[in-house]
Specification:
With 221 residues, the chain is an alpha+beta fold. The protein has nine helices and five strands; from the N terminus they run H-E-E-H-E-H-H-H-H-H-E-E-H-H. The protein is 57% helix and 10% strand.
């Protein structure tokens, strides 16, 4: 038999459990909200928005330079992020062109794209500069380098001087200026938002910001 006292104690216990679960649910919601909250100081709106090249996907563009040591150091983490990136995002690489001294590496990058060079070639280009300390500063050196991947000198020269590469170069210049970036590496999301290690405070935090910006850009479409 349940007494009135026992019933009262039971009701109090039940109320305590309800409050406990409610509090837990509230804390979970607060934690979830915090996880996706963007800190405005960790990114900036680009100076002038530009068209993206990824269609329905949210473009995540890395602005980089082959001669940049920080860009080389970022490569492993960038590749790891790409493997686990949001399904609605697509990574593209844009060689920065802030002045004439940046142009050759950008032209070499787009020439390799035009030739459908393997990923190993891009990795080796970085490695040659930052590990072997051998700089590729002219077309002759580029043809010698790409011969290791089966490309003939006339193929490389034709691609290097092609209309397609020239068009890509012009676009890269526009993006470099429009982004408002002051250095590399920098990440531009959907042609609207820019972040970097300098903005975010660390490489790990930068990619958290990128993921959040992908969500933000998708919600704004």
């Amino acid at each position: 038999m349940t007494t009135r006292k026992q019933s009262t104690l039971f009701n109090r216990a039940k109320q305590s459990l309800v409050l406990l679960f409610s509090f837990g649910a509230l804390m979970a919601c607060q934690a979830q909200t915090t996880a996706y909250e963007l800190d405005p100081s960790k990114y900036q709106t680009v100076t002038s928005e530009f068209a993206v090249s990824t269609g329905d996907k949210i473009e995540v563009a890395e602005l980089f330079w082959f001669k940049c040591g920080h860009c080389y150091a970022l490569e492993p983490t960038l590749k790891k992020w790409e493997e686990g990136k949001p399904d609605n995002a697509e990574l593209v690489k844009v060689p920065a062109i802030f002045s004439a001294r940046w142009e050759f590496e950008a032209q070499a990058f787009y020439a390799m794209q035009a030739l459908n060079a393997p990923q190993e070639a891009y990795d080796a280009y970085f490695h040659r500069i930052h590990v072997q300390k051998k700089y590729i500063n002219n077309v002759s050196a580029l043809t010698e380098f790409l011969s290791e991947y089966g490309f003939a000198a006339d193929q490389v020269e034709s691609a290097f001087n092609s209309f397609a590469v020239d068009t890509n170069m012009r676009n890269a210049k526009k993006i470099s200026i429009a982004s408002g970036a002051t250095g590399v590496p920098a990440i531009i999301v959907d042609g609207k938002y820019l972040t970097s290690v300098t903005h975010a405070g660390s490489t790990q935090e930068m990619f958290k910001v990128v993921d959040q910006l992908v969500k933000k850009a998708a919600a704004e479409r």
